[in-house]
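Could you help me review a protein record that somebody else here produced? Do not assume that whoever made the record got everything right. The record follows directly below this note.
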Amino acid sequence: MAPVSAVLALLCSLTWGTSDFLGGLLSRRLPAAAVVGASQVVGLVAMTVTLLVVAALGHPVPFDRWAEWAPYAVAAGATGSVALAAFYAGLSAGTMGVVAPIAATGAAVPVLLGVLTGDQPTTLAWAGMAIAVLGTILASGPELRGGVSARPVLLAVVAAVGFGTVLFLVARGSHVSTVATLWGMRLTSTTLYVVLALRLGTVGGTRAGDLRWLLPIGLGDLGANALFATASGLGMVSVVAVLASLYPVVTTLLARVLLHERLQRIQVVGVVVSLAGVAALSVA
């Protein structure tokens, strides 16, 4: 993989990890759907401004080729909305250092989808996916056997599948236009959450003081998607996806340092094994 692509993918992990930590933290006080919805609005505003600036610089969005990027953008927006809500809900209800690595195993999804569309993963790649699954089981075990509910683990699994699918969809749409794909993705997710909020009567659930949290969450998520889209255009999607999925390391470190979270020994083993699987995928 090109060094630039690898660096961008790792920066994506750093950005996603920080954004997810803040999102999970805010979700302990507000409903996860409210946090995701408000952060998506922030992302849509930022992406619309970016679209206008890019157009003013002489690079208009290829709306005439909408059929080539819009389906991926809409699918990514809808899938990402469900995945992000599940992830934030899981972070708010469980230990961040366990939920985040489980969600990271979604890196295997782009690899599998790549196989279905012609990619041929190496033996090491398949081994990496097996190791990641084993890590997921070990990291999930204490949650399932102990007094803690299995709900955070199940939410993390939903998030894993959703995140992996979104990575694949964004990469595909970005082959035509990164800006258009990300804008369409944010428009879709924002519309879904606004409609849901209106139906549930939860509009206005956030306060003005929450803006200092929502800005970095929304801009961070958008920035990470942009970094991933750019990186996937420079290197193999499967490798970029797993490097971008190393964000649990950042989330876990922030949780340890700022929240003083402690993991049980079996959970530590699970986290390490899970991340080892992701690392194996990244070099496959």
Notes: The chain is about 80% helix and 0% strand. The chain has one domain: 3-283.
